[in-house]
Amino acid sequence: MHFHKITLAGVGLLGGSLGLAIKQHGLAKKVDGFVRRSASIAECDQLGVVDHATPDPLRAVENADLLVLCTPLARMREVLQKMLPALKRGAIVTDVGSVKENVVQELEQLVAEAGGHFVGSHPMAGTEKMGVSAARADLFVNAVCVITPTPRSSPDAIARIEQFWRAVGGCPLRMTPEVHDDLVSRSSHLPHVVAAELANYVLSPAHPKEQAILCANGFRDTTRIASGSPEMWRDIALANRSNLTRVLGVFIEDLQEFRLALEKADSKAVEEFFEKAKQRRDAWSGQNVSPSPE
Protein backbone atom coordinates (compact mmCIF):
# COMPACT_ATOMS: atom_id res chain seq x y z
CA MET A 1 0.00 0.00 0.00
CA HIS A 2 1.24 3.48 -0.86
CA PHE A 3 -0.06 7.04 -0.70
CA HIS A 4 1.37 10.00 -2.56
CA LYS A 5 0.93 12.22 0.50
CA ILE A 6 -0.34 11.67 4.03
CA THR A 7 -1.19 14.59 6.29
CA LEU A 8 -1.18 14.25 10.07
CA ALA A 9 -3.33 16.91 11.74
CA GLY A 10 -1.69 17.08 15.15
CA VAL A 11 1.85 15.81 15.72
CA GLY A 12 1.98 14.65 19.32
CA LEU A 13 2.50 11.13 20.64
CA LEU A 14 0.08 9.44 18.23
CA GLY A 15 0.65 11.71 15.25
CA GLY A 16 4.41 11.63 15.69
CA SER A 17 4.44 7.86 16.08
CA LEU A 18 2.33 7.50 12.95
CA GLY A 19 4.74 9.73 11.05
CA LEU A 20 7.70 7.59 12.10
CA ALA A 21 5.88 4.36 11.24
CA ILE A 22 4.72 5.67 7.85
CA LYS A 23 8.27 6.71 6.97
CA GLN A 24 9.79 3.49 8.30
CA HIS A 25 7.48 1.35 6.15
CA GLY A 26 7.55 3.61 3.09
CA LEU A 27 3.78 4.12 3.03
CA ALA A 28 3.85 7.59 1.48
CA LYS A 29 6.05 9.64 -0.79
CA LYS A 30 5.53 12.60 1.53
CA VAL A 31 4.30 13.08 5.11
CA ASP A 32 3.18 16.53 6.20
CA GLY A 33 2.17 17.58 9.70
CA PHE A 34 -0.19 20.31 10.88
CA VAL A 35 0.90 21.90 14.16
CA ARG A 36 -0.72 24.60 16.29
CA ARG A 37 2.44 26.51 17.14
CA SER A 38 5.31 27.62 14.94
CA ALA A 39 7.66 26.54 17.76
CA SER A 40 6.62 22.91 17.14
CA ILE A 41 8.10 22.97 13.64
CA ALA A 42 11.70 22.82 14.87
CA GLU A 43 10.91 19.91 17.20
CA CYS A 44 9.24 17.95 14.38
CA ASP A 45 12.23 18.61 12.13
CA GLN A 46 14.70 17.58 14.82
CA LEU A 47 12.88 14.30 15.53
CA GLY A 48 12.19 13.55 11.86
CA VAL A 49 8.57 12.58 12.45
CA VAL A 50 7.31 14.30 9.28
CA ASP A 51 8.84 15.68 6.10
CA HIS A 52 7.28 19.10 6.57
CA ALA A 53 5.45 20.67 9.50
CA THR A 54 3.34 23.80 9.18
CA PRO A 55 0.75 25.79 11.17
CA ASP A 56 -1.10 26.49 7.89
CA PRO A 57 -4.01 24.02 7.64
CA LEU A 58 -4.53 24.54 3.91
CA ARG A 59 -0.85 24.06 3.12
CA ALA A 60 -0.73 20.97 5.30
CA VAL A 61 -3.62 19.14 3.61
CA GLU A 62 -3.03 20.26 0.04
CA ASN A 63 -2.84 17.26 -2.36
CA ALA A 64 -3.06 14.73 0.49
CA ASP A 65 -4.55 11.33 -0.34
CA LEU A 66 -4.99 10.52 3.35
CA LEU A 67 -5.69 12.88 6.24
CA VAL A 68 -5.38 11.51 9.78
CA LEU A 69 -6.89 13.70 12.51
CA CYS A 70 -4.68 13.34 15.58
CA THR A 71 -5.89 16.38 17.52
CA PRO A 72 -7.82 16.28 20.82
CA LEU A 73 -11.46 15.27 20.28
CA ALA A 74 -12.84 18.73 21.01
CA ARG A 75 -10.71 20.29 18.24
CA MET A 76 -11.25 17.77 15.43
CA ARG A 77 -14.22 19.50 13.82
CA GLU A 78 -12.57 22.93 14.04
CA VAL A 79 -9.32 21.70 12.45
CA LEU A 80 -11.11 19.72 9.76
CA GLN A 81 -13.26 22.68 8.76
CA LYS A 82 -10.15 24.79 8.27
CA MET A 83 -8.70 22.10 6.00
CA LEU A 84 -11.77 21.27 3.91
CA PRO A 85 -11.33 24.03 1.32
CA ALA A 86 -8.03 22.40 0.26
CA LEU A 87 -9.08 18.77 0.69
CA LYS A 88 -8.40 16.76 -2.44
CA ARG A 89 -11.51 15.20 -4.00
CA GLY A 90 -11.56 11.48 -3.28
CA ALA A 91 -9.21 11.85 -0.32
CA ILE A 92 -9.71 9.56 2.66
CA VAL A 93 -10.04 11.08 6.13
CA THR A 94 -9.71 9.11 9.36
CA ASP A 95 -8.90 9.90 12.99
CA VAL A 96 -7.38 8.38 16.13
CA GLY A 97 -10.06 9.49 18.59
CA SER A 98 -10.97 7.40 21.62
CA VAL A 99 -14.69 8.12 21.17
CA LYS A 100 -16.33 7.36 17.86
CA GLU A 101 -20.09 8.01 17.74
CA ASN A 102 -19.85 11.80 18.12
CA VAL A 103 -16.82 12.03 15.83
CA VAL A 104 -18.48 10.05 13.05
CA GLN A 105 -21.73 12.00 13.33
CA GLU A 106 -19.90 15.32 13.16
CA LEU A 107 -17.29 14.62 10.52
CA GLU A 108 -18.69 12.08 8.05
CA GLN A 109 -21.11 14.53 6.43
CA LEU A 110 -18.57 17.37 6.31
CA VAL A 111 -16.02 15.20 4.51
CA ALA A 112 -18.64 13.83 2.10
CA GLU A 113 -19.76 17.35 1.15
CA ALA A 114 -16.13 18.18 0.34
CA GLY A 115 -15.89 15.16 -1.96
CA GLY A 116 -13.90 12.95 0.39
CA HIS A 117 -14.48 9.73 2.33
CA PHE A 118 -14.47 9.53 6.12
CA VAL A 119 -13.84 6.29 8.03
CA GLY A 120 -13.44 6.48 11.81
CA SER A 121 -10.49 4.78 13.52
CA HIS A 122 -9.23 4.20 17.04
CA PRO A 123 -5.82 2.58 17.50
CA MET A 124 -5.75 1.10 21.01
CA ALA A 125 -2.23 2.31 21.60
CA GLY A 126 -0.54 5.00 23.59
CA THR A 127 1.16 5.70 26.88
CA GLU A 128 0.77 8.14 29.74
CA LYS A 129 3.51 10.22 28.13
CA MET A 130 2.60 13.27 26.08
CA GLY A 131 4.08 15.12 23.14
CA VAL A 132 6.01 14.33 20.01
CA SER A 133 9.19 13.66 21.98
CA ALA A 134 7.57 10.42 23.21
CA ALA A 135 6.77 9.23 19.68
CA ARG A 136 8.10 5.89 18.51
CA ALA A 137 7.71 3.94 15.27
CA ASP A 138 6.59 0.69 16.93
CA LEU A 139 3.74 2.19 18.96
CA PHE A 140 1.05 0.46 16.88
CA VAL A 141 2.69 -2.95 16.56
CA ASN A 142 0.16 -5.64 17.62
CA ALA A 143 -2.28 -2.95 18.78
CA VAL A 144 -5.97 -3.45 18.07
CA CYS A 145 -7.03 -0.70 15.64
CA VAL A 146 -10.80 -0.33 15.63
CA ILE A 147 -12.41 0.74 12.35
CA THR A 148 -15.94 2.16 12.62
CA PRO A 149 -17.55 2.33 9.17
CA THR A 150 -21.18 3.29 8.61
CA PRO A 151 -23.67 2.37 5.86
CA ARG A 152 -22.46 5.50 4.03
CA SER A 153 -18.79 4.47 4.07
CA SER A 154 -16.98 3.72 0.81
CA PRO A 155 -15.97 0.02 0.70
CA ASP A 156 -12.70 1.01 -0.97
CA ALA A 157 -11.96 3.62 1.72
CA ILE A 158 -12.70 1.08 4.47
CA ALA A 159 -10.32 -1.41 2.86
CA ARG A 160 -7.61 1.22 2.48
CA ILE A 161 -7.85 2.28 6.11
CA GLU A 162 -7.66 -1.34 7.27
CA GLN A 163 -4.61 -1.85 5.07
CA PHE A 164 -3.07 1.33 6.47
CA TRP A 165 -3.36 0.23 10.10
CA ARG A 166 -2.10 -3.23 9.21
CA ALA A 167 0.88 -1.69 7.43
CA VAL A 168 1.99 0.18 10.58
CA GLY A 169 1.75 -3.04 12.58
CA GLY A 170 -1.79 -2.88 13.92
CA CYS A 171 -4.61 -5.43 13.99
CA PRO A 172 -7.75 -3.91 12.41
CA LEU A 173 -11.14 -4.76 13.89
CA ARG A 174 -14.47 -3.49 12.54
CA MET A 175 -17.40 -2.49 14.73
CA THR A 176 -20.07 0.19 14.84
CA PRO A 177 -19.29 3.51 16.53
CA GLU A 178 -21.98 2.80 19.14
CA VAL A 179 -20.60 -0.62 20.09
CA HIS A 180 -17.07 0.78 20.24
CA ASP A 181 -18.06 3.55 22.65
CA ASP A 182 -19.91 1.13 24.92
CA LEU A 183 -16.96 -1.27 25.12
CA VAL A 184 -14.20 1.30 25.67
CA SER A 185 -16.24 3.03 28.37
CA ARG A 186 -15.52 -0.05 30.52
CA SER A 187 -12.09 -1.17 29.31
CA SER A 188 -10.41 2.20 28.76
CA HIS A 189 -12.32 5.19 30.08
CA LEU A 190 -13.40 3.72 33.43
CA PRO A 191 -9.83 2.64 34.36
CA HIS A 192 -8.62 6.20 33.76
CA VAL A 193 -11.28 7.61 36.07
CA VAL A 194 -10.39 5.03 38.73
CA ALA A 195 -6.64 5.71 38.42
CA ALA A 196 -7.24 9.46 38.61
CA GLU A 197 -9.40 9.16 41.73
CA LEU A 198 -6.84 6.91 43.41
CA ALA A 199 -4.16 9.51 42.74
CA ASN A 200 -6.45 12.35 43.90
CA TYR A 201 -7.50 10.57 47.09
CA VAL A 202 -4.35 8.79 48.22
CA LEU A 203 -1.98 11.64 47.39
CA SER A 204 -4.23 14.34 48.83
CA PRO A 205 -2.37 16.85 51.04
CA ALA A 206 -5.04 16.13 53.65
CA HIS A 207 -3.19 12.90 54.53
CA PRO A 208 0.01 12.70 56.60
CA LYS A 209 3.25 13.28 54.67
CA GLU A 210 4.24 9.64 55.28
CA GLN A 211 1.34 8.54 53.05
CA ALA A 212 3.26 9.10 49.81
CA ILE A 213 6.29 7.27 51.19
CA LEU A 214 4.17 4.14 51.64
CA CYS A 215 2.91 4.21 48.03
CA ALA A 216 4.92 1.37 46.49
CA ASN A 217 4.84 -0.57 43.21
CA GLY A 218 1.20 -1.59 43.43
CA PHE A 219 0.09 2.04 43.70
CA ARG A 220 2.55 3.10 40.99
CA ASP A 221 1.29 0.44 38.56
CA THR A 222 -2.38 1.07 39.29
CA THR A 223 -2.14 4.85 38.87
CA ARG A 224 0.33 5.03 35.96
CA ILE A 225 -2.31 6.15 33.46
CA ALA A 226 -3.38 9.02 35.72
CA SER A 227 -0.34 10.86 34.34
CA GLY A 228 -2.03 11.11 30.94
CA SER A 229 -3.06 14.41 29.34
CA PRO A 230 -5.81 16.09 31.41
CA GLU A 231 -7.04 17.92 28.29
CA MET A 232 -7.36 14.70 26.33
CA TRP A 233 -9.14 12.83 29.12
CA ARG A 234 -11.48 15.73 29.77
CA ASP A 235 -12.57 15.55 26.12
CA ILE A 236 -12.91 11.76 26.19
CA ALA A 237 -14.96 11.69 29.39
CA LEU A 238 -17.34 14.38 28.16
CA ALA A 239 -17.67 12.92 24.66
CA ASN A 240 -18.57 9.47 26.04
CA ARG A 241 -20.37 10.71 29.15
CA SER A 242 -23.59 8.73 28.64
CA ASN A 243 -21.76 5.41 28.55
CA LEU A 244 -19.21 6.39 31.19
CA THR A 245 -21.80 7.57 33.72
CA ARG A 246 -23.69 4.29 33.27
CA VAL A 247 -20.66 2.05 33.82
CA LEU A 248 -19.52 4.21 36.73
CA GLY A 249 -22.88 3.54 38.36
CA VAL A 250 -22.43 -0.22 38.03
CA PHE A 251 -18.83 0.01 39.26
CA ILE A 252 -19.88 1.99 42.33
CA GLU A 253 -22.63 -0.54 43.09
CA ASP A 254 -20.07 -3.36 42.97
CA LEU A 255 -17.79 -1.47 45.36
CA GLN A 256 -20.70 -0.87 47.70
CA GLU A 257 -21.38 -4.62 47.77
CA PHE A 258 -17.74 -5.25 48.66
CA ARG A 259 -17.91 -2.57 51.35
CA LEU A 260 -20.99 -4.27 52.83
CA ALA A 261 -19.15 -7.60 52.89
CA LEU A 262 -16.29 -5.95 54.78
CA GLU A 263 -18.66 -4.36 57.28
CA LYS A 264 -20.22 -7.78 57.92
CA ALA A 265 -16.79 -9.42 58.13
CA ASP A 266 -18.07 -11.86 55.48
CA SER A 267 -14.79 -13.65 54.79
CA LYS A 268 -16.33 -15.90 52.13
CA ALA A 269 -17.68 -12.97 50.10
CA VAL A 270 -14.41 -11.05 50.43
CA GLU A 271 -12.35 -14.02 49.28
CA GLU A 272 -14.75 -14.69 46.38
CA PHE A 273 -14.37 -11.07 45.29
CA PHE A 274 -10.59 -11.43 44.97
CA GLU A 275 -10.74 -14.99 43.61
CA LYS A 276 -13.14 -14.08 40.81
CA ALA A 277 -10.95 -11.12 39.85
CA LYS A 278 -7.82 -13.28 39.78
CA GLN A 279 -9.46 -15.99 37.64
CA ARG A 280 -10.83 -13.51 35.13
CA ARG A 281 -7.64 -11.48 34.86
CA ASP A 282 -5.42 -14.57 34.57
CA ALA A 283 -7.67 -16.02 31.87
CA TRP A 284 -7.62 -12.73 29.95
CA SER A 285 -3.85 -12.22 30.19
CA GLY A 286 -3.19 -15.81 29.12
CA GLN A 287 -5.02 -15.59 25.83
CA ASN A 288 -4.47 -13.71 22.58
CA VAL A 289 -7.37 -11.25 22.50
CA SER A 290 -6.21 -9.42 19.37
CA PRO A 291 -8.20 -9.99 16.17
CA SER A 292 -6.71 -12.60 13.87
CA PRO A 293 -4.72 -11.17 10.96
CA GLU A 294 -6.35 -11.58 7.56
Structure overview:
- With 294 residues, this protein is of the alpha/beta class.
- The protein folds into two domains: 3-175, Rossmann fold, CATH 3.40.50; 179-285, Orthogonal Bundle (6-phosphogluconate dehydrogenase C-terminal fold).
- Helix content is 51%, strand content 14%.
- It is built from twelve helices and nine strands.
- The protein has a six-stranded parallel sheet with strand order 3-2-1-4-5-6, sandwiched between helices. A three-stranded mixed sheet has the order 7-8-9, with helices on one face.
- The longest helix has 26 residues, at 177-202.
- The protein is globular, with a radius of gyration of 21 Å.
- The model has no long low-confidence stretch (mean pLDDT 94).
What are the defining features of this structure?
3-stranded mixed β-sheet; 6-phosphogluconate dehydrogenase C-terminal fold; 14% strand; Rossmann fold; 6-stranded parallel β-sheet; alpha/beta; 2 domains; single chain; 294 residues
Helix content: 40-55%
Strand content: 5-15%
Number of domains: 2
CATH class of the largest domain, anyone?
Answer: Alpha Beta
The first-to-last residue Cα distance is 15 Å
Instruction: Please provide the ordered H/E string of secondary-structure elements.
Output: EHEHEHEHEHEEEHEHHHHHH
CATH topology of the largest domain: Rossmann fold
Task: Report Rg.
Answer: 21 Å
Secondary-structure content class: alpha/beta
Using the 3D structure, state the CATH architecture of the largest domain: 3-Layer(aba) Sandwich
Unreliable segments (pLDDT under 50, ≥5 consecutive)?
none
Please tally the β strands and state the result. 9
Strand order of the largest sheet: 3-2-1-4-5-6
Sheet bearing the most strands, described? 6 strands, parallel
- What is the average of the pLDDT values? 94
